[in-house]
Amino acid sequence: MKRIAKKILVLLLTAVLIIPQAACSANGGGQKEGPSGSGQAAAADDEKEIRGPVTGQDFHFDTVCQITIYSMDHMTQAAADDALEQAFALCGTYEDMLSKTLEGTDIYRINHAGGVPVECDPETVEIIRMGLQYAELSDGKFDITIGKAVDLWDFHADAVPAVPDPALLSEAVSHVDYKTVSIEGSQVTLTDPEAEIDLGGIAKGYVADRVCEKLEECGVTGAIVSLGGNVDCLGSKPDGKKEKDFVVGIEAPYSDKSEVVGSTPASDRTVVTSGVYERFFTYEGREYHHILDPETGYPADSDVLGVSIAAARGKSADCDALATICLILGAEKGMELVESMDGFEALFITRENKILTTEGFDFTKR
């Protein structure tokens, strides 16, 4: 899951990334230190009602995950810290369930079972079923059994650029076939023992949705969740006694997150972007990016640099898969697919730097 994991290609103009943080912790807890020798005063301060934002971050799914809480039913420092702690703990739980590389996870056990059925958590089964549905929808352009091909590439920033041996890649691709995944109840079997499941194209979206649900359970009414970029906006942003939309900026390709081409409002909404410019390297004068075509094992070759899919909150997993599919399909076929589906909108940035949107995508060009 880790190597294929996509980072969203957006900047949060509502200041998720640039706000003065009321609290921030590397372990996600957002704990605040009190004055030296004044533990009781610090504890009392933690119980005072405060105004957001309160931000925390942690590292999961091979990427930095950030959550910013803007409002709660009764927002105190302690309450906000507790909500962040529970949310990041949930990320850890899913990573321990869905990671392809961590030993003992459901996906690791399936991939190393030699074709024997593996008993899995019901949520693992749910995500795999979603992945298979999008594989069917895309006629295999989205395929969760791409794991072996993914293993042959390394798009990490510190990696030495290298293209896999064509023979090895051809062998890996021969085991990419979502129809080899069999589900019976809570048991998952790979009928091709050499196949490998990788949920990097859908898992973070699923987790983002569940994190929003956890925050709601904690009394959060306004927040932005960015799991390596899969952005879920819970509620809206407080503005005095009123509320206003969160705003998500769509990053300009190859800008290192320093420029945006425009923005879209996103209250109780999710926006997921897939782009060829997020993880790539140049080798012998040619660029190779991390979004692989399941038919070839090589980076997808289409007329699209980036795709942003927007939908109601709770649909982040769907948007995750659709963004990948549309980038592989290209602008024309991708547009047709999204327009055929209720509740989803899309923005495409083509290699000619044209911006194309479905009719309902609310976009303000910069």
If you compute it from the alpha carbons, what radius of gyration comes out, rounded to the nearest whole angstrom?
21 Å
CATH class of the domain at 106-190: Mainly Alpha
Choose one word for the global shape. Answer: globular
What class, by secondary structure content? alpha+beta
> Helical segment tally?
9
Mean pLDDT: 88
| Strand adjacency order, main sheet | 2-3-7-8-13-16-17-18
- Report the order of strands and helices: EHEEHHEHHHEEHEEEEEEEEEEHHEEE
CATH fold label of the domain at 106-190: T-fold
N→C terminal distance: 34 Å
Segments where pLDDT lies below 50 for 5+ residues? Answer: 1-36
**Strand percentage, roughly?**
25-35%
Instruction: Tell how many strands the DSSP assignment holds.
Output: 19
The CATH superfamily name of the domain at 106-190 is: ApbE-like superfamily
Please give the CATH architecture of the domain at 106-190: Orthogonal Bundle
Biggest β-sheet description: 8 strands, antiparallel
**Helix residue percentage:** 25-40%
Question: What is the topological layout?
Answer:
Layout: E1 10-12, H1 39-46, E2 54-60, E3 63-72, H2 77-98, H3 106-111, E4 118-119, H4 122-137, H5 147-151, H6 166-173, E5 181-184, E6 187-190, H7 203-217, E7 220-227, E8 230-234, E9 237-239, E10 242-244, E11 247-251, E12 260-265, E13 269-275, E14 280-283, E15 286-289, E16 304-312, H8 316-329, H9 331-339, E17 345-350, E18 355-357, E19 364-365
Antiparallel strand pairs: 1-11, 2-3, 3-7, 4-6, 5-6, 7-8, 8-13, 9-10, 11-12, 12-19, 13-16, 14-15, 16-17, 17-18
